[in-house]
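Record type: monomer structure entry
Structure origin: computed from sequence
Chain ID: A
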Amino acid sequence: MRDRDPNIIYSSLGRGLSIDGVTVDVKIYRLEDDPQWALEVVNEEGTSTVWGDLFDTDDEAYAAFQLTVEEEGMRIFLDDDNVIPFPGGRR
C-alpha cells in the first residue's frame, strides 16, 4: 500500500503585495509532518525565489522576507540576466 503525500500547510502571513512598483506573492508553507517553514517569493512573471534555509516559525520566515526587502529592495525579485534558462525551455 502506498503512503499518501503530506498536506501542505500555508501560513496566514503569506500574501500578495506591491512595493515600489514591484508586485510579488509571498508564500510561507510547511509540510504537515515537518515543523519548519519554507519561504518562497513569486514575481509577476512567475519566477520563484526560494530560500535555501527553513525557518522555525512562519514569523521568522516573513522577517527574512522583510529583511531582504530592506537590504536589497523589491527589484531583487524581478527577472533579469541572472535567470538561467533550461535548454529548450522558455523564460
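Annotation 1: The chain has a mean pLDDT of 88.
Annotation 2: Strands lie at 8-10, 15-19, 22-31, 38-43, 48-50.
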